[in-house]
């Protein structure tokens, strides 16, 4: 079992709109159980490093940020830098930590992604057989007693993906978005985006880009990620000052997208992943609105 397999596992699941054959469905039974073992071993390594850090601090309770009260071990995972073994950004998927927050480039994000992967695997087992093999489960609980509660939670619940359990509710009175462009830039952006909307929606698109509101959702005629990435670029190039949350709410309140299965609502989790973590961005070839004044930047640049 290799880390690259875990990256594929966490990339997509059955619930994603464009998922025709998620990676997890291609695994054989023994591979499903093998990956569960692999994940528990990695969890144990991360927690061992956190405990060692605790001991190095004399076993004393260090100040825990507000978001991590009563989560002491998680807090100490935050302090552990990623190693060569865990250096891929694909393994970083802690929704409650962003690039600017304490904990970026640490093993806290790794642990959260491992938990998410565990839920994917048990979800696939449930879809095939209803429940996991009890003999295997008993061995895992015996070998990793510290994760009994986590294992029970993963194998008993319905679909889980390790993301925040807070339900997303569209904002009824969505805030307008103020895009700070000169007339030439506005016209160029509007003309390019019009290519991805039906002609009878062009006027509503223009109103949205001008900071006005509309009374229905308009349909982006391609993958949602291509649209969302444009607004990520507008933000980091200094043309938007709203937060990622405000931009997400605005996008989800005003747009749908067209997939092979028909017209769909934007997935708020996927929108957030792109806006805040650049996860799932389109390839350079698929990127739209490639203007001189709207440069693409990597996370490292």
Structure description:
- The chain is mainly alpha-helical and 301 residues long.
- It has two domains: 3-156, no CATH class; 183-277, no CATH class.
- The chain contains eleven helices and three strands.
- It has a three-stranded mixed beta sheet.
- A hairpin with a 2-residue loop joins strand 2 and strand 3 (262-265).
- Helix 2 (29-56) packs across helix 3, helix 9 packs parallel to helix 11 (268-277) and helix 10 packs antiparallel against helix 11 (268-277).
- The two termini are 32 Å apart.
- The model is unreliable at 11-20, 87-102 and 158-171 (pLDDT under 50).
List the helices and strands and how they pair.
Layout: H1 3-11, H2 29-56, H3 72-78, H4 107-129, H5 134-143, H6 148-156, H7 183-194, H8 202-209, E1 218-220, H9 224-236, H10 244-254, E2 255-259, E3 262-265, H11 268-277
